[in-house]
Amino acid sequence: MSKLNIGIVGATGYTGVELLRLLAQHPHAQVQIITSRGEAGVHIADYFPSLRGVYDLRFQDPEHADLSQCDVVFFATPHGVAMRDAPALLEKGVKVVDLSADFRLQDVPTWEKWYGMPFTAQAALKQAVYGISELNRAQIQQAQLVANAGCYPTCVSLPLIPLLKNKVLQDGMPIISDCKSGVSGAGRKAAVGTLLCEAGDNFKAYGVAGHRHLPEIRQTIALFDEKLAEKFIFVPHLTPMIRGMHATTYVHVQDNINPHDLIADFYSGSPFVDVMPIGSTPETRSVRGANICRIAAQRAPEYTDNVWILMSVQDNLVKGAAGQAVQNMNLMCGLPETAGLSQVALLP
Amino acid sequence: MSKLNIGIVGATGYTGVELLRLLAQHPHAQVQIITSRGEAGVHIADYFPSLRGVYDLRFQDPEHADLSQCDVVFFATPHGVAMRDAPALLEKGVKVVDLSADFRLQDVPTWEKWYGMPFTAQAALKQAVYGISELNRAQIQQAQLVANAGCYPTCVSLPLIPLLKNKVLQDGMPIISDCKSGVSGAGRKAAVGTLLCEAGDNFKAYGVAGHRHLPEIRQTIALFDEKLAEKFIFVPHLTPMIRGMHATTYVHVQDNINPHDLIADFYSGSPFVDVMPIGSTPETRSVRGANICRIAAQRAPEYTDNVWILMSVQDNLVKGAAGQAVQNMNLMCGLPETAGLSQVALLP
Amino acid sequence: MSKLNIGIVGATGYTGVELLRLLAQHPHAQVQIITSRGEAGVHIADYFPSLRGVYDLRFQDPEHADLSQCDVVFFATPHGVAMRDAPALLEKGVKVVDLSADFRLQDVPTWEKWYGMPFTAQAALKQAVYGISELNRAQIQQAQLVANAGCYPTCVSLPLIPLLKNKVLQDGMPIISDCKSGVSGAGRKAAVGTLLCEAGDNFKAYGVAGHRHLPEIRQTIALFDEKLAEKFIFVPHLTPMIRGMHATTYVHVQDNINPHDLIADFYSGSPFVDVMPIGSTPETRSVRGANICRIAAQRAPEYTDNVWILMSVQDNLVKGAAGQAVQNMNLMCGLPETAGLSQVALLP
Amino acid sequence: MSKLNIGIVGATGYTGVELLRLLAQHPHAQVQIITSRGEAGVHIADYFPSLRGVYDLRFQDPEHADLSQCDVVFFATPHGVAMRDAPALLEKGVKVVDLSADFRLQDVPTWEKWYGMPFTAQAALKQAVYGISELNRAQIQQAQLVANAGCYPTCVSLPLIPLLKNKVLQDGMPIISDCKSGVSGAGRKAAVGTLLCEAGDNFKAYGVAGHRHLPEIRQTIALFDEKLAEKFIFVPHLTPMIRGMHATTYVHVQDNINPHDLIADFYSGSPFVDVMPIGSTPETRSVRGANICRIAAQRAPEYTDNVWILMSVQDNLVKGAAGQAVQNMNLMCGLPETAGLSQVALLP
């Protein structure tokens, strides 16, 4: 079986290097083209020393790279780029996994409000499938364009989806997701706020007045219950570590319902969602480098109402970004869902 | 003015060394006795190299140390010790600040349930004043025994107290406090779970099935509203940093009420509570080493009900422990509340 | 081809879990037995959550585990255990890779001096091959017992070996190796000194008055030059990170010799030693999780004599321990040297 | 006694905020003017939240700030600024402490070679005193302009000075200083290399081909022995922590000389240099936030020649920058050397 020919647009960031790490070990895919405007001509091994001896590739100028020869192109770019460049690739039959936010929101005015620019790829948007693999597995298998889900939306939605699908959440009560992310979620750009001396040994909330992942998560909730979507509250925090994301989500469940079992049942056939036994607490390091979302659920103690605490962890760069992108590629291309994704978490 | 003669029982832990750091610069207090069963005879400078040149003291065996000569004794011990040893000191007129949990809960069965041992100091408990300085300033000024509040209870209660006092929270709705602590909260004992290689670059919840600070915080809420106390949900998390605590507390507020202003008004005369302008997010490092609880409040965005997000940060070893203990000592001894507590936070 | 049947003695530490991570992806080996006295009966997934879904194994009591059925047994134990238990396995034809120090020093009195206990396995010692794979590749291929090299000795020796072999170091001048290790080198045992709050945000030397890896490195140098071995100075330091080791080694080289080229030539056929171009500086993270020792060399600037600075990095748990152990197993068993060791470093 | 009127030029960096922290508690000094081109008009509390409630100052545009009214002005700026602006202040009688490198090297061609720009303040240079307080205490007391020493030069020079002064180092043998710095040494500027995700959990050398502090340290050695200055080798490393610096310096000492005692004697009257007992190893955290250089010395074990390992630690932002600057100000202004510098190190 010949290998898929892969291109990566914008391979200088953390999701880019993570795609390269994962695809290096993929049995059915081979990266052929990587692009970067700023680093055109530079050898990947000079840019990312972790890839010395792994790839013999140089960054190409995106203006001149012939991405149409690829079977699959990943966009690991800021928003706005895939919207501009993906449609031409789609026309030529290339499959596209967009790791940016361009095709995540189906409602154009909402997208334009949160991303602050005009949306210009309506035709492509119509065919885009939202890329939480476990939510849309069947559609992704048929898709030519997948909008890889955001890191927070993946981590928050996975434990919620089985409860929403089973309609066991109480009407009118809040769904509160208090989320914590490692600093790599902010990307690999020069900025004061993510310096080691600023973000290290420090904890803070951010985006409290409104974060772009709020409408994305609400869109997923609304697939099941539009009213509950409006009851969703989301506060992200920055935690002083490189990788890892932890969502703590507080839900009001109908009487006599045990959400743990519903979640465990729902994901019994999903290789990358691991539901722990009752009484467990997941740790972010248990999934460091691995394409896994690990979930535990616990009823709020000493509390009269049936409130549950859903804890979900993932590596924000893997199941929250590049890993799920490869998982989606596998689905799109008819490969085994787990191909190239058997990395064991790095602990300690 | 002669200096207060200070004793510290159990000075080998993190709250002990922090008391020593703060009291070294106190204009009206001098540490005369430090005790430790395991380290009796050892010079403090050999134990804590940060104190070389600062103190010329050796640990004394608690059996032989004459703590009754002290004006004030701090217990920086595991629970059970102050309960056993403080009553004799109180009888001799010594003032006691207990940094352990022994005298924090006024309901003995509740204490015994959560701490798993019989409570044996009922007489002392009757005179104990709960030591959140800003909550009980007047009573602390008259107290001989102060039960220094826990770290989480201080951080969570401070933003809640003004709202409870003003009775502006909605009945029947949950108060959810999602808390994050640096690892020093777990103390300075040999344990696998708090090794750098276990707790570093990792984030997790703990005590989800029930944490001892839950009844302590509920006791404070119940001072104002017993029903709301039962609606309090608390989940602590461990974050990979040494010092610092962040509470994110979600409250349902009555219509047309702005909790930010109530909190700011309430603490206008409190030197160690800093309420930030609307739109701010406090950072734990902004109080590293300083006796400050810094608070911000933000209305939940895109939400129909009047839900507010209260963010409060403190150094868990200072305002969350040793700093508040000194603050309480100042109040008990008629000293200026700020004496010895003007350390500026260490940033970066 | 059937898979090798693997046993791991003492699989509860960091080298144990790292062996399990690496062997999970090994195409020709399968772990069948893991032992632990303290955790007998516990499922590996309950002990190391990173291994949930990867292995279905329980720790066995070492007294009852039938390790003689294994093809290869790894000892990931404190010193003293392999010395006691390996000889019986060797007699039954089992191949043994000892990750402890028991068989590293060929001189028994030296071993007894540094390890403080009697040495009792002289017969086994005679057949032990010292396990720096690149130093003793041919002998390891014939060996039944390999004494896997220490972490510092591997990192320090690899850049030195080509210079020693080529006899280009100046007589009588010191070889100074200033080494820095991540905290995982201290193992996974409850201890105050390696708590996050003690070892975090802190840097210090340790073992300055004498570290057990000093005689081990000198033994390797003495293979080439006994006098130079006595000129070797070694100071290890603890750096606040989980994994990673950096050796900075200062050597006096004979005039007109370029040690960079000698090192690069020597390792041209070694898949796990990467020599960077002149002017580079290796980073520990570039090998995080990968079985690579990455080396750079730089002439001391503005200096009259031909002094060179050799910089070498490795993941102390991989090329410094479990990865090299698997590499040695591959050599011992006639497998491709790289089998199961193609993990790409995790960056960031 | 009226307080000294202080100005700080370039107060937005880490040495700036550290000066502000230290001077807030200084009994004889008051900061009146802070300048920043980029942040003119911004309140210091909005820029550094750690200073909320500590200062009521706004950044002034350096073009319009009247620094000539100050008694002392600190330059916490990149090189080139003090060279341009200090001379006018000196003419008006203002005392200047320059924390940048402008006046550190007395040899102008050397300065121009290493700093890559023309040097234009020869007159001021003639009166500049090099500001290692313990080296030049008497001259600093008379100085109007002090060139505050670099962080590495302070940490490396302090243990060497007594040995150089006593002429006990062997001729012709190298002095090798292997240094490790926390990331704050790189300053508070947006840069990829010092992001938490790049510098965290990572260790590397840098500046191996030549670092600007090499000629600065050699200049100090040459005060005592010009030939030995040429034998000095210096390699700095970046260690994943915020504050702290550790120098490990290897020296060849003449027979029968014990450098530990020479160092201890030399600093017996120096309040900010602490020499530990033989057998100790200093930790960077033992001086976190404190104006102390802590030193230990150990003879190289198992070595025939009299080689000693000098270990010195400091907080790079305090004794390595702002603290020493205040110490120098105290000396220049006839204040007690320790005024305002009694902060106890923050441990943990």
UniProtKB/TrEMBL annotation, chains A, B, C, D:
<dbReference type="InterPro" id="IPR058924">
    <property type="entry name" value="AGPR_dimerisation_dom"/>
</dbReference>
<dbReference type="GO" id="GO:0070401">
    <property type="term" value="F:NADP+ binding"/>
</dbReference>
<dbReference type="InterPro" id="IPR036291">
    <property type="entry name" value="NAD(P)-bd_dom_sf"/>
</dbReference>
<feature type="domain" description="Semialdehyde dehydrogenase NAD-binding">
    <location>
        <begin position="5"/>
        <end position="143"/>
    </location>
</feature>
<protein>
    <recommendedName>
        <fullName>N-acetyl-gamma-glutamyl-phosphate reductase</fullName>
        <ecNumber>1.2.1.38</ecNumber>
    </recommendedName>
</protein>
<dbReference type="Pfam" id="PF22698">
    <property type="entry name" value="Semialdhyde_dhC_1"/>
</dbReference>
<feature type="active site">
    <location>
        <position position="151"/>
    </location>
</feature>
<keyword id="KW-0560">Oxidoreductase</keyword>
<comment type="similarity">
    <text>Belongs to the NAGSA dehydrogenase family. Type 1 subfamily.</text>
</comment>
<comment type="function">
    <text>Catalyzes the NADPH-dependent reduction of N-acetyl-5-glutamyl phosphate to yield N-acetyl-L-glutamate 5-semialdehyde.</text>
</comment>
<keyword id="KW-0521">NADP</keyword>
<comment type="pathway">
    <text>Amino-acid biosynthesis; L-arginine biosynthesis; N(2)-acetyl-L-ornithine from L-glutamate: step 3/4.</text>
</comment>
<keyword id="KW-0028">Amino-acid biosynthesis</keyword>
<dbReference type="GO" id="GO:0005737">
    <property type="term" value="C:cytoplasm"/>
</dbReference>
<dbReference type="InterPro" id="IPR000534">
    <property type="entry name" value="Semialdehyde_DH_NAD-bd"/>
</dbReference>
<keyword id="KW-0055">Arginine biosynthesis</keyword>
<keyword id="KW-0963">Cytoplasm</keyword>
<dbReference type="InterPro" id="IPR023013">
    <property type="entry name" value="AGPR_AS"/>
</dbReference>
<dbReference type="GO" id="GO:0003942">
    <property type="term" value="F:N-acetyl-gamma-glutamyl-phosphate reductase activity"/>
</dbReference>
<dbReference type="GO" id="GO:0006526">
    <property type="term" value="P:L-arginine biosynthetic process"/>
</dbReference>
<dbReference type="GO" id="GO:0051287">
    <property type="term" value="F:NAD binding"/>
</dbReference>
<dbReference type="Pfam" id="PF01118">
    <property type="entry name" value="Semialdhyde_dh"/>
</dbReference>
<dbReference type="InterPro" id="IPR000706">
    <property type="entry name" value="AGPR_type-1"/>
</dbReference>
<dbReference type="InterPro" id="IPR050085">
    <property type="entry name" value="AGPR"/>
</dbReference>
